[in-house]
Each structure stands twice: as structure tokens, then as C-alpha cells.
Amino acid sequence: MTRIVLSVLTVMMWFATATAQTVFITNTGKVTFYSKAPLEDIEATTTKANCILNTANGEVVSIIAIRSFKFEKALMEEHFNEKYLESDKYKDATFKGKTTETLIADKDTSYKVNVTGTMKIHGVEQPVAYLADYSVKSGNPSLEGSFNIALKDYNITIPKLVIENIAEVVKVTCKFDLEPYKKKN
Amino acid sequence: MRNLLMGMFTKKAIFTSTLLLSSYMLLAQDDLMKMMEEQNVKTKKEEVTATFKSTRLINGHDIETSKQGELLFTVQHRFGQLNQGTYDLFGLDQATMRLAFDYGVFNWLTVGVGRSTFEKTYDGFLKAKLLKQRKGGTPITITGVSAMQINTLKFSDPDRKNYFSSRLTYSHQLLIASKVSNTFSLQLMPSYVHRNLVPTASEKNDVFALGGGGRIRISRSVNFTAEYYYVFPGQISSAYKNSLAVGFDIETGGHVFQIHFTNSRSMVEKGFIAETTGEWLDGGIHFGFNLNRVFTVYTPKE
Q1: Residue A110: phi, psi to the nearest 5?
Q2: Chain B residue with Cα closest to A13
Q3: Which residues of B fall within a CB distance of 8 Å from A75?
Q4: CATH number, domain at B119?
Q5: Would you say B256 and B53 are in contact if contact means Cβ atoms under 8 Å apart?
Q6: Do residues A63 and B36 make contact, with C-beta atoms less than 8 angstroms apart?
Q7: Element (H, E) at B241
Q8: Quick check: A48 contacting B, CB < 8 Å?
Q9: pLDDT at B260 over 80
Q10: Nearest chain A Cα distance for residue B289, angstroms
């Protein structure tokens, strides 16, 4: 009995640590947010989002530099960084989460997964849950999804003067095409 | 007995292993974090942005340049002197204005043209950012501005031989600024103005001045600004004063609205540096505003 338990655990440990590739990473993830307000629609995109995924346990971590978001108008970008996100104080948005479903990484596949975790923006942490598309193509997994965030949840306030210009809830879309993790020297 | 012992041992083994496993899992997210950070070693220090809210401190330029592909349209007004009393509604009846377009050729290079009603002056300038302040690196930003002004008033004495070149004035400034903190920026402006023609022999064609100014953030959308130009003695007529201006920058979505009080009427360098006539203490103060509106001509690709 003991032996069985021990060997099962050992195998689990071994699987968790030493199987084929289970960690995938990207630093060119695409994250877009979209604000729809009566006076104008504002969209900003970064293609420098970092994401790392462990398919062995479904854990996913993402770090996005606030300054990497690009806007159509430079002035919007300045206001975004200076007045709303205060990016010199709060440099990054981070997400730490986990997929509920087991992730298959060793063959081509495509299915939906539930991602739950904690989002930290503007120094404030909030739980986030969303449904994502998970797929694997020739050994490279990708994760794609979207969710809404309410600005006031993250202590981002909009002055009355521009309330017609900025939506209170913005839609965030993310797409991460991941590659096997290789340690850099 | 044996079974009991065995059971205890099994429980212990499971417990220890679970603990081990869970600690492994716990570590995992931090490990992922660490792995990610290792991949992203930043090589360049971040640029400091928004030292000032507009490309002009009040009358003069500040270190900010227009972004590439952006057209800045500025409408500037200076009213008459406050001490003119109610008949002219404290100077409001006598507005002079300047219209200007600034265009960002690159993020570091701006070209601009303007027309002032005061002395029917056309002006053009080139403005280049030479050094950028960086977080934890270079402490200052340096921008150079070279401008030329053409006075197009009719010659006062059309009978004598007049030269076109006597209409021209030039100014060159080095703007040195530091965003000390999020709420406070400071700027120094060593300035040089050259006038091809001066009214009297006692006035110098070349005028050297040192300007200083800054801004203090009052709220997220409002800044207090001040600007002063000290003209080194013995260069200009004693009728002229040093230029002093104080004001507020008010930011809305796409506009920056600057309102201020200044003893200078002209809005070009040769005017406010070398020909300021108002005396603050006697109420020789002009109320004025700059209205800045940015248009995006095109969004540059990275």
C-alpha cells in the first residue's frame, strides 16, 4: 500500500517536473482595450505583452507594461499614462491565474477553457474570470479571450469634463501565441 | 497492529507528499514570474514624458515638441492693459492675437509658422529635442529653438531707402528642463535675440537674456505656470521691462487651455524678451490665453 502511494506520488512529481515541455512563453502577446463612449471610441493595443503558461497545472501569468499601449492619438496616450493609469507609479498590469480544465499540449487541439485569477491594474487587485479559446498547433499553444473591466474597480476615476469621452467599462481582448520556454543565457 | 502502523505511515507519506507537491505548486507561479522577468531584461531607461502640458510655457517655448504626425493649432490672445479701466473693460476691447500651426516632422523635430496681429508679424521656427530626460538616467531634457520674425508694417519713413532685411529679427534659445517630480517641472532658457535694425544707436542689435520658469501641478487637469525673462543690462532701452507671466494650464480631452497674466503684449521672442513695455506694479498687465488643439494627421508606425 505505502509503496503504491509513494510510487504514485513520485510519478506525479516526476510528471510535474520532468515531462516534456510544459512551460510556454511569449513576449509578443497582443492585448487591446476598447472604450466606447458617446463622443469618441478609444482603442489601444500593445503587442509586447508577456505571458507564461504551464500546461502541466494550467497556471498562467501575464505582465503587461502600461507604457507599451499605443493609441491612435499621442495625446490620449499621454493622458492614459499621466492622468489615469499613473504608469510611472504603477508600471505593469499583471494577471495571475489558472485554467479550470486540463491543458493538452502534446497534440493539435482546440477547445474552450475557463480562466480564473487575479488582475492587478493601477495597484488594485481584482478577481477576474473569463472563457478563453485554447488551442495547440504543432506544439505551440495559444490562448485567446476577452473580458470587461470596470475602471472604478481599479480606482481609475474619470473627470466629469471627459465623462462623454471615456467609457466606464472597457473591453479587454488578449491573444497569446506561446512558444516552448527556453532558458536564456 | 501492523496494519495500524502501516496506515499511520501511509497517512504521513501522503501528508508529506501533498505538502511537497503543494509547495511545488505554490512556488510555480512565482517561478513563472521569475522566468518571465529573466526573459525581459530592459536595456534602455524609460523616457520621462509630459514635463509640460503644452509646447509653450506661456509666451515662450518649453522643451515639449509635437509628436510625429501631429498638427498643433494654437490661438493666442493678449488683451490690453488692466489699468486702462472700465472704458476699455480692463483692456478686453484691445485684443491682439497670434494664430499658429506647429507640425511634428519627427518626435524630436517640430516646424512651426505663426502670424501675429501685433506689428503684423509673421514668424517661423524650428524646434529640436536634443537630449531626453530618462528615469534613473539623464536628469534633464534639452531642446533648441531657432525662430525668425518678419515685421510687415509699412515702413515708417517710406521716403528714405528701406531694406527688407531691416524687417527681420532672429531668436535662438536653448531650453533646459527637468521634471523634478510628477507635480513639479523647472526650465531654464538662455536666449539670444538679434535685431537687424534697432531704433536708436544706444540699443544693441544683439540681446542676451536668461529665462526661467516652471509648472506646479494643482490637480490632475490644472497646472500653475510661471515664466520670467531677465535681460542682461545695457542692451535695450530703459523703457523696456523684463517679461513676467503667470498662469494656469487647464487640460480637457483634446485641448490645453492656458490662461495667464503677463506684462508682454507680443507673443514672439523678439517682442516679449526685448520689447516688453508693461510694468506689473502699475497694473501694466495683459490678460491673455492660449488655446491649443491637437490634430492627428497620421499615426506613425513603430
Answers
A1: -160, 120
A2: B21
A3: 67, 70, 254, 294
A4: 2.40.160.40
A5: yes
A6: yes
A7: none
A8: no
A9: yes
A10: 20
- Contact between A58 and A97 under an 8 Å Cβ cutoff? The reply is no
In-domain check, residue B291: yes
Write the ipTM. 0.73
> In this predicted structure, what is the pLDDT of residue B10?
66
Q: Which of B19, B34, B39 to mutate to test the interface with A (most CBs of A within 10 A)?
A: B39
- Asked whether residue B190 is assigned to any structural domain, the reply reads yes
B9 reaches A (C-beta below 8 A) = yes
Is the CB of A5 less than 8 angstroms away from the CB of B70? no
Q: Is the pLDDT of residue A60 over 80?
A: yes
Establish if B17 touches chain A: CB-CB under 8 angstroms.
Answer: yes
What's the pTM value of the predicted model, to 2 decimals? Answer: 0.81
**What are the pLDDT digits (tens) for B197-211?**
998 888 999 999 999
Residue B42 backbone phi and psi in degrees, to 5: -75, 130
pLDDT (mean) for B215-241: 94
Q: Into how many domains does chain B fold?
A: 1
In a domain, B19, yes or no: no
How big is chain A, counted in residues? 185
Q: At what angle do helices A2-18 and B2-39 cross, to 10 degrees?
A: 0
Which residues between 71 and 130 in chain B have a beta carbon less than 8 angstroms from any beta carbon of chain A?
Answer: none
In a domain, B109, yes or no: yes
Can you tell me the distance from the alpha carbon of A108 to that of A9, in angstroms, rounded to the nearest whole number?
A: 28
Please state which of the four CATH numbers 2.40.128.110, 3.40.50.1000, 3.40.50.970, 3.30.70.20 is assigned to the domain occupying A22-178.
2.40.128.110
- Name the residue among B88, B51, B91 with its Cα closest to residue B176: B51
Question: What is the extent of the structural domain holding B153?
Answer: 70-296
